[in-house]
């Protein structure tokens, strides 16, 4: 039996999820069916889930509470808290775990904060260690000490505010660990992809890639070629970034996420990559479609390939698993399984749909 953990919105985020859910794919009579099995860990609005690379530990972004928490497997379909929830920031919406499992990066949509946590040997999150220099300055000169000294530097809007307009707000939305140990984060509000270096207990900005104003970079995926693909929520595009020999990143190409996408009506959410690296998948909330894009050349260009019905309302998250695309429909309260063409990777018909309370993230269970 194939199993998945399911994140969702609860009462504090106008949803009906009661915690981290448990979803199974059961084989029978030549066909597979999705089944929601119930709550694996009662917790408020675990809207994003991330897996430790080697331990049976799951990390949840508790978006409404602005906290992050670790959970360890305690049975086939249950998880228990591994330490207390730790403060993150307003509307923490995404978590990324380092490849070696020693660091977790939390991105906070509400206040734009990017927060780094350590991970202990057993997988539990290590509380933020105070910056001794900052504490000394606070004691000697009366400066206000930061609540969390592992916070990364706040972003600044690279574009001037037009006359008569209100200043824009920073909205950190995702993080990806890059080859060589650096970290990329998106700022949806300021149209930035920010490149960081881990230093001491925090993060130090290395440089930033500025995307066109109003594009809204949301989620990213690292291609095996070394290119970084970024989907934009506001402009319905996929940007591809490339790194130079000096380690700097820059824009390589851009394409529309879907030939039918309507800016202001459609809002791309997740970006997922096929196992062979030849196809990208994004889902458009609004038209409720799934768009497949072909990766060309050595990964530096992308072009639309095919379009299909997502089978859900408001497809917030999706992933590729064994030739099937699983799509979480936030507003329909369902998870759909879409068959993928074995030769082209194009999405085909919806194989099955299962009910799930306000699903926002799907994570394969070990």
- If helices are DSSP runs of H or I spanning 4 or more residues, what is the number of helices? 1
Mean pLDDT: 92
Structural class: mainly beta
| Model regions low in confidence, pLDDT < 50 over at least 5 residues | 131-149
Number of strands: 29
> Alpha-carbon distance between the termini?
11 Å
Q: Which value, in Å, is the CA radius of gyration?
A: 20 Å
Give a quick account of the main beta sheet: strands, pairing sense, barrel closure.
5 strands, antiparallel
In N-to-C order, the SSE pattern is EEEEEEEEEEEEHEEEEEEEEEEEEEEEEE
Which oligomeric state applies? single chain
**What sort of overall outline do the alpha carbons produce when their principal axes are compared?**
globular
Strand content: over 45%
Q: How much helicity do the residues have?
A: under 10%
A few lines on this structure:
The chain is 3% helix and 54% strand.
How would you describe this structure to a colleague?
The protein has 366 residues and is mainly β. The protein has a domain at 57-129 and 147-156 and 168-192 and 200-210. It contains 1 helix and 29 strands. Strands 4, 5, 6, 7 and 8 form a 5-stranded antiparallel sheet that branches. Strands 3-2-1-29 form a 4-stranded antiparallel sheet, with no helix packed on it. Strand 23 (289-296) and strand 24 form a beta hairpin. The longest helix is centred in the middle third of the chain and has 10 residues, at 132-141. The chain is globular, with a radius of gyration of 20 Å. The model is unreliable at 131-149 (pLDDT under 50).
């Amino acid at each position: 039996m194939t199993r998945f953990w399911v994140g969702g919105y609860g009462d504090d985020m106008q949803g009906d999820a009661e915690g981290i859910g448990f979803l199974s794919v059961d084989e029978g009579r030549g066909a597979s069916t999705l089944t929601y099995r119930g709550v694996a860990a009662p917790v408020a609005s675990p809207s994003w889930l991330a897996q430790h690379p080697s331990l049976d530990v799951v990390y949840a972004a508790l978006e409404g509470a602005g906290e992050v928490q670790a959970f360890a497997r305690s049975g086939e379909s249950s998880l228990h808290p591994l330490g207390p929830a730790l403060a993150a920031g307003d509307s923490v919406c995404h978590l990324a775990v380092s490849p070696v499992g020693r660091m977790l990066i939390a991105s906070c949509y509400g206040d734009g904060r990017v927060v780094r946590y350590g991970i202990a040997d057993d997988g539990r999150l290590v509380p933020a260690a105070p910056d001794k220099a900052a504490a000394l300055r606070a004691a000697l000169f009366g400066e206000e000490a930061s609540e969390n000294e592992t916070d990364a530097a706040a972003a600044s809007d690279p574009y001037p505010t037009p006359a008569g307009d209100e200043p824009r707000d920073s909205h950190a939305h995702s993080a990806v660990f890059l080859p060589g140990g650096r970290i990329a984060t998106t700022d949806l509000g300021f149209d930035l992809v920010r490149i960081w270096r881990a230093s001491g207990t925090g993060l130090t900005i290395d440089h930033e890639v500025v995307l066109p104003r109003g594009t809204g970079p949301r989620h990213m995926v690292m291609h095996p070629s070394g290119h970084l693909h970024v989907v934009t929520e506001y402009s319905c595009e996929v940007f591809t970034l490339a790194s130079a020999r000096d380690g700097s990143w820059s824009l390589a190409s851009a394409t529309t996420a879907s030939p039918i996408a309507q800016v202001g009506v459609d809002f791309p959410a997740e970006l997922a990559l096929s196992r062979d690296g030849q196809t990208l998948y994004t889902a458009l909330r609004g038209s409720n479609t799934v768009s497949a894009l072909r990766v060309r050349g050595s990964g530096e260009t992308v072009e639309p390939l095919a379009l299909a019905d997502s089978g859900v309302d408001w497809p917030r998250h999706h992933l590729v698993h064994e030739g099937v695309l699983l799509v979480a429909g936030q507003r329909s309260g369902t998870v759909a399984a879409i068959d993928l063409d074995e030769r082209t990777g194009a999405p085909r018909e919806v194989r099955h749909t299962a009910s799930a309370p306000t699903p926002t993230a799907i994570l394969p269970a070990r």
